[in-house]
Design a protein that fits this description.
- This protein has 6 helices and 13 strands.
- It has 312 residues and is α+β, with helices and mostly antiparallel strands.
- It has 2 domains: 1-212, Immunoglobulin-like (Sandwich); 220-309, Immunoglobulin-like (Sandwich).
- The strands form 3 sheets. Strands 1, 5, 7, 8, 10 and 11 form a 6-stranded mixed β-sheet that branches. Strands 4-3-2-6-9 form a 5-stranded mixed β-sheet.
- Helix 4 packs across helix 6 (298-309).
- The longest helix is centred in the N-terminal third of the chain and has 33 residues, at 18-50.
Amino acid sequence: MSAASAVEPPSALSPASLQAEALAEVSWVLIAGATVVFVLTMALVAASFARRKPAVPTGWWVFGGGVALPVAVLSALLLYSTWRTHGLDQAPAAPLVIGLTGHLWWWEVRYQDPASGREVALANELRIPVGRPVQLGLASADVIHSVWVPPLGGKMDLVPGRVNRLVITATRAGVHRGQCAEFCGEQHARMALHVVALPPAEFDAWLARQAQPAAAPGDAALERGRRAFVESGCAACHDVRGVSQGARGGPDLTHVGSRLFLGAGVLRNEAGAMARWITEVQQLKPGARMPSFTQLDPATRTALADYLAQLR
Protein backbone atom coordinates (compact mmCIF):
# COMPACT_ATOMS: atom_id res chain seq x y z
CA MET A 1 0.00 0.00 0.00
CA SER A 2 1.64 3.20 -1.17
CA ALA A 3 1.97 6.56 0.49
CA ALA A 4 -0.71 7.81 -1.87
CA SER A 5 -3.26 5.49 -0.27
CA ALA A 6 -6.44 7.27 0.73
CA VAL A 7 -7.34 7.37 4.42
CA GLU A 8 -10.93 6.30 4.98
CA PRO A 9 -13.21 8.63 6.99
CA PRO A 10 -13.03 7.74 10.71
CA SER A 11 -16.66 6.70 11.17
CA ALA A 12 -17.81 4.18 13.77
CA LEU A 13 -20.86 3.56 11.56
CA SER A 14 -18.70 2.31 8.69
CA PRO A 15 -17.17 -0.78 10.35
CA ALA A 16 -14.09 -2.53 8.97
CA SER A 17 -13.63 -5.20 11.65
CA LEU A 18 -15.72 -7.87 13.35
CA GLN A 19 -15.61 -5.95 16.63
CA ALA A 20 -16.64 -2.67 14.99
CA GLU A 21 -19.53 -4.42 13.22
CA ALA A 22 -20.93 -5.52 16.58
CA LEU A 23 -20.55 -2.02 18.04
CA ALA A 24 -22.16 -0.41 14.97
CA GLU A 25 -25.10 -2.81 15.21
CA VAL A 26 -25.59 -1.93 18.88
CA SER A 27 -25.39 1.76 18.00
CA TRP A 28 -28.12 1.46 15.36
CA VAL A 29 -30.37 -0.50 17.75
CA LEU A 30 -29.89 2.16 20.45
CA ILE A 31 -30.63 4.92 17.93
CA ALA A 32 -33.77 3.09 16.80
CA GLY A 33 -34.86 2.54 20.40
CA ALA A 34 -34.31 6.19 21.27
CA THR A 35 -36.28 7.22 18.18
CA VAL A 36 -39.24 5.05 19.17
CA VAL A 37 -39.23 6.46 22.71
CA PHE A 38 -39.04 10.02 21.35
CA VAL A 39 -41.93 9.46 18.93
CA LEU A 40 -44.10 7.92 21.68
CA THR A 41 -43.28 10.79 24.05
CA MET A 42 -44.19 13.42 21.45
CA ALA A 43 -47.41 11.52 20.66
CA LEU A 44 -48.36 11.61 24.33
CA VAL A 45 -47.56 15.32 24.51
CA ALA A 46 -49.79 15.94 21.50
CA ALA A 47 -52.57 13.84 23.02
CA SER A 48 -52.37 15.82 26.26
CA PHE A 49 -53.15 19.01 24.35
CA ALA A 50 -56.00 17.37 22.44
CA ARG A 51 -58.13 16.54 25.47
CA ARG A 52 -58.65 18.45 28.72
CA LYS A 53 -59.23 15.40 30.90
CA PRO A 54 -57.23 12.20 30.36
CA ALA A 55 -59.22 9.03 29.67
CA VAL A 56 -56.88 7.19 32.03
CA PRO A 57 -56.19 8.54 35.57
CA THR A 58 -53.09 10.72 35.77
CA GLY A 59 -51.36 8.35 38.19
CA TRP A 60 -51.40 5.55 35.62
CA TRP A 61 -49.82 7.85 32.99
CA VAL A 62 -47.07 8.82 35.41
CA PHE A 63 -46.37 5.22 36.44
CA GLY A 64 -46.67 3.73 32.95
CA GLY A 65 -44.86 6.44 30.98
CA GLY A 66 -42.42 7.56 33.66
CA VAL A 67 -41.50 4.28 35.34
CA ALA A 68 -42.67 1.11 33.62
CA LEU A 69 -41.86 2.07 30.02
CA PRO A 70 -38.32 3.40 30.69
CA VAL A 71 -37.49 0.39 32.87
CA ALA A 72 -38.71 -2.05 30.22
CA VAL A 73 -37.04 -0.31 27.27
CA LEU A 74 -33.71 0.39 28.99
CA SER A 75 -33.56 -3.12 30.48
CA ALA A 76 -34.14 -4.65 27.04
CA LEU A 77 -31.45 -2.45 25.47
CA LEU A 78 -29.03 -3.26 28.30
CA LEU A 79 -29.55 -7.01 27.93
CA TYR A 80 -29.20 -6.82 24.15
CA SER A 81 -26.03 -4.70 24.17
CA THR A 82 -24.44 -6.89 26.85
CA TRP A 83 -25.20 -10.04 24.84
CA ARG A 84 -24.05 -8.57 21.52
CA THR A 85 -20.74 -7.21 22.81
CA HIS A 86 -19.86 -10.15 25.07
CA GLY A 87 -16.40 -11.53 24.33
CA LEU A 88 -15.27 -8.77 21.98
CA ASP A 89 -12.11 -8.37 24.08
CA GLN A 90 -11.35 -12.09 23.92
CA ALA A 91 -9.00 -13.16 21.12
CA PRO A 92 -9.35 -16.60 19.51
CA ALA A 93 -6.43 -19.01 19.68
CA ALA A 94 -3.04 -17.87 18.33
CA PRO A 95 -3.73 -14.18 17.65
CA LEU A 96 -1.08 -11.87 16.24
CA VAL A 97 0.21 -10.00 19.32
CA ILE A 98 1.43 -6.43 18.80
CA GLY A 99 2.69 -4.03 21.46
CA LEU A 100 1.40 -0.46 21.35
CA THR A 101 2.87 2.12 23.74
CA GLY A 102 1.73 5.72 24.03
CA HIS A 103 4.32 8.50 24.40
CA LEU A 104 4.14 12.27 24.49
CA TRP A 105 3.07 12.57 21.62
CA TRP A 106 3.60 9.53 19.44
CA TRP A 107 2.91 5.78 19.29
CA GLU A 108 5.52 3.05 19.61
CA VAL A 109 4.58 -0.16 17.78
CA ARG A 110 6.41 -3.47 18.32
CA TYR A 111 6.07 -6.77 16.45
CA GLN A 112 7.97 -10.04 16.57
CA ASP A 113 9.19 -11.36 13.24
CA PRO A 114 8.05 -15.02 13.06
CA ALA A 115 10.97 -16.04 10.83
CA SER A 116 13.85 -14.71 12.93
CA GLY A 117 12.17 -14.10 16.29
CA ARG A 118 13.59 -10.58 16.12
CA GLU A 119 11.61 -7.72 17.64
CA VAL A 120 10.58 -5.14 15.06
CA ALA A 121 9.91 -1.57 16.18
CA LEU A 122 8.25 1.23 14.27
CA ALA A 123 6.15 4.26 15.12
CA ASN A 124 2.79 5.90 14.53
CA GLU A 125 1.65 3.30 12.01
CA LEU A 126 0.04 -0.04 12.80
CA ARG A 127 -0.19 -2.61 10.00
CA ILE A 128 -2.39 -5.66 10.45
CA PRO A 129 -3.50 -8.60 8.27
CA VAL A 130 -7.08 -8.86 7.07
CA GLY A 131 -9.00 -11.80 8.55
CA ARG A 132 -6.55 -12.61 11.35
CA PRO A 133 -7.30 -11.68 14.98
CA VAL A 134 -4.86 -9.11 16.35
CA GLN A 135 -4.38 -8.60 20.08
CA LEU A 136 -2.91 -5.23 21.01
CA GLY A 137 -1.01 -5.01 24.29
CA LEU A 138 -1.58 -1.40 25.36
CA ALA A 139 0.82 0.45 27.67
CA SER A 140 1.90 4.01 28.39
CA ALA A 141 5.37 5.38 28.95
CA ASP A 142 4.25 8.57 30.69
CA VAL A 143 0.62 9.72 31.17
CA ILE A 144 -2.79 8.21 30.42
CA HIS A 145 -3.48 7.96 26.70
CA SER A 146 -6.43 6.35 24.92
CA VAL A 147 -6.45 4.73 21.49
CA TRP A 148 -9.52 4.86 19.26
CA VAL A 149 -9.78 3.82 15.62
CA PRO A 150 -13.55 4.19 15.00
CA PRO A 151 -13.91 1.82 11.98
CA LEU A 152 -12.02 -0.94 13.82
CA GLY A 153 -13.56 -0.99 17.30
CA GLY A 154 -14.00 0.75 20.62
CA LYS A 155 -11.54 2.87 22.52
CA MET A 156 -9.24 1.65 25.27
CA ASP A 157 -7.04 3.52 27.76
CA LEU A 158 -3.28 3.14 27.96
CA VAL A 159 -2.40 3.48 31.65
CA PRO A 160 1.13 3.81 33.11
CA GLY A 161 2.16 0.65 34.95
CA ARG A 162 -0.62 -1.45 33.45
CA VAL A 163 -1.12 -3.45 30.23
CA ASN A 164 -4.62 -3.37 28.72
CA ARG A 165 -5.86 -5.40 25.78
CA LEU A 166 -7.73 -4.59 22.58
CA VAL A 167 -8.70 -7.17 19.96
CA ILE A 168 -9.17 -6.31 16.27
CA THR A 169 -10.11 -8.60 13.39
CA ALA A 170 -10.07 -6.54 10.18
CA THR A 171 -12.58 -7.57 7.52
CA ARG A 172 -11.29 -5.53 4.58
CA ALA A 173 -8.14 -3.80 3.42
CA GLY A 174 -7.81 -0.05 3.91
CA VAL A 175 -6.14 2.80 5.78
CA HIS A 176 -7.85 4.11 8.91
CA ARG A 177 -6.94 7.10 11.07
CA GLY A 178 -6.99 6.57 14.82
CA GLN A 179 -6.51 9.16 17.51
CA CYS A 180 -5.50 9.55 21.11
CA ALA A 181 -8.90 10.01 22.76
CA GLU A 182 -7.68 11.06 26.24
CA PHE A 183 -6.31 14.57 26.70
CA CYS A 184 -2.60 14.05 27.35
CA GLY A 185 -0.99 17.45 26.94
CA GLU A 186 -0.09 20.20 24.51
CA GLN A 187 0.03 18.10 21.33
CA HIS A 188 -2.80 15.67 22.17
CA ALA A 189 -4.64 16.64 18.97
CA ARG A 190 -1.54 15.82 16.87
CA MET A 191 -1.19 12.25 18.09
CA ALA A 192 -2.69 10.22 15.28
CA LEU A 193 -2.27 6.49 14.73
CA HIS A 194 -2.79 5.22 11.19
CA VAL A 195 -3.86 1.60 10.89
CA VAL A 196 -3.23 -0.14 7.56
CA ALA A 197 -5.11 -3.39 7.00
CA LEU A 198 -3.37 -5.54 4.36
CA PRO A 199 -4.11 -8.87 2.66
CA PRO A 200 -2.29 -11.62 4.64
CA ALA A 201 0.41 -12.33 2.03
CA GLU A 202 1.14 -8.61 1.62
CA PHE A 203 1.33 -8.19 5.39
CA ASP A 204 3.78 -11.11 5.77
CA ALA A 205 6.04 -9.66 3.06
CA TRP A 206 5.90 -6.22 4.68
CA LEU A 207 6.81 -7.59 8.13
CA ALA A 208 9.75 -9.53 6.66
CA ARG A 209 11.07 -6.30 5.11
CA GLN A 210 10.59 -4.39 8.36
CA ALA A 211 12.68 -6.98 10.21
CA GLN A 212 15.70 -6.22 8.03
CA PRO A 213 18.29 -3.61 9.06
CA ALA A 214 18.54 -0.35 7.18
CA ALA A 215 20.05 -0.57 3.72
CA ALA A 216 23.57 0.80 3.33
CA PRO A 217 23.83 4.19 1.56
CA GLY A 218 24.14 3.74 -2.17
CA ASP A 219 26.17 6.84 -2.98
CA ALA A 220 28.31 9.57 -1.43
CA ALA A 221 25.39 11.96 -0.86
CA LEU A 222 23.44 9.37 1.14
CA GLU A 223 26.59 8.43 3.06
CA ARG A 224 26.91 12.08 4.02
CA GLY A 225 23.33 11.94 5.28
CA ARG A 226 24.10 8.80 7.32
CA ARG A 227 27.08 10.54 8.93
CA ALA A 228 24.94 13.60 9.66
CA PHE A 229 22.38 11.35 11.37
CA VAL A 230 25.07 10.06 13.75
CA GLU A 231 27.12 13.21 14.22
CA SER A 232 24.21 15.66 14.63
CA GLY A 233 22.83 13.80 17.62
CA CYS A 234 19.84 12.10 15.93
CA ALA A 235 21.17 8.68 16.99
CA ALA A 236 20.93 9.71 20.66
CA CYS A 237 17.12 9.41 20.47
CA HIS A 238 16.39 7.41 17.32
CA ASP A 239 17.34 3.87 16.31
CA VAL A 240 18.24 2.93 12.77
CA ARG A 241 19.07 -0.77 12.90
CA GLY A 242 22.49 -1.34 11.41
CA VAL A 243 23.55 2.24 12.16
CA SER A 244 22.58 2.98 15.77
CA GLN A 245 20.73 0.89 18.33
CA GLY A 246 19.61 1.19 21.94
CA ALA A 247 18.08 4.68 21.80
CA ARG A 248 14.51 4.83 23.14
CA GLY A 249 13.88 8.57 23.39
CA GLY A 250 12.12 8.83 20.03
CA PRO A 251 10.61 6.71 17.27
CA ASP A 252 12.60 3.97 15.51
CA LEU A 253 13.53 5.27 12.04
CA THR A 254 14.89 2.09 10.43
CA HIS A 255 12.22 2.14 7.71
CA VAL A 256 10.76 5.61 8.22
CA GLY A 257 10.66 6.30 4.48
CA SER A 258 7.98 3.63 4.01
CA ARG A 259 5.50 5.21 6.41
CA LEU A 260 2.47 7.14 5.24
CA PHE A 261 2.90 10.11 7.60
CA LEU A 262 5.53 11.88 9.68
CA GLY A 263 5.18 13.27 13.20
CA ALA A 264 2.19 11.08 14.20
CA GLY A 265 0.01 12.32 11.36
CA VAL A 266 1.32 15.90 11.10
CA LEU A 267 2.73 15.60 7.55
CA ARG A 268 2.01 13.16 4.76
CA ASN A 269 5.30 11.45 3.87
CA GLU A 270 5.79 12.89 0.40
CA ALA A 271 8.52 14.76 -1.44
CA GLY A 272 10.02 17.51 0.73
CA ALA A 273 8.19 16.45 3.90
CA MET A 274 11.25 14.97 5.62
CA ALA A 275 13.33 18.10 5.13
CA ARG A 276 10.48 20.25 6.38
CA TRP A 277 9.99 18.09 9.48
CA ILE A 278 13.71 18.22 10.35
CA THR A 279 13.88 22.02 10.23
CA GLU A 280 10.35 23.02 11.33
CA VAL A 281 9.40 20.44 13.94
CA GLN A 282 8.81 23.04 16.67
CA GLN A 283 6.66 25.11 14.32
CA LEU A 284 4.67 22.06 13.18
CA LYS A 285 4.37 20.40 16.60
CA PRO A 286 5.29 22.85 19.40
CA GLY A 287 6.48 21.10 22.53
CA ALA A 288 7.64 17.94 20.77
CA ARG A 289 10.81 16.55 22.34
CA MET A 290 12.90 17.23 19.25
CA PRO A 291 14.54 20.53 18.34
CA SER A 292 14.27 22.11 14.91
CA PHE A 293 17.63 21.41 13.26
CA THR A 294 18.06 24.85 11.75
CA GLN A 295 21.76 24.90 12.64
CA LEU A 296 22.60 22.45 9.85
CA ASP A 297 23.89 23.94 6.62
CA PRO A 298 21.56 23.44 3.61
CA ALA A 299 23.68 20.74 1.97
CA THR A 300 23.91 18.65 5.15
CA ARG A 301 20.21 19.14 5.85
CA THR A 302 19.33 17.95 2.36
CA ALA A 303 21.64 14.93 2.65
CA LEU A 304 20.12 13.98 6.02
CA ALA A 305 16.55 14.30 4.71
CA ASP A 306 17.37 12.28 1.57
CA TYR A 307 19.03 9.55 3.67
CA LEU A 308 16.01 9.20 5.98
CA ALA A 309 13.52 9.34 3.10
CA GLN A 310 15.15 6.37 1.35
CA LEU A 311 15.01 4.15 4.45
CA ARG A 312 12.27 1.84 3.19
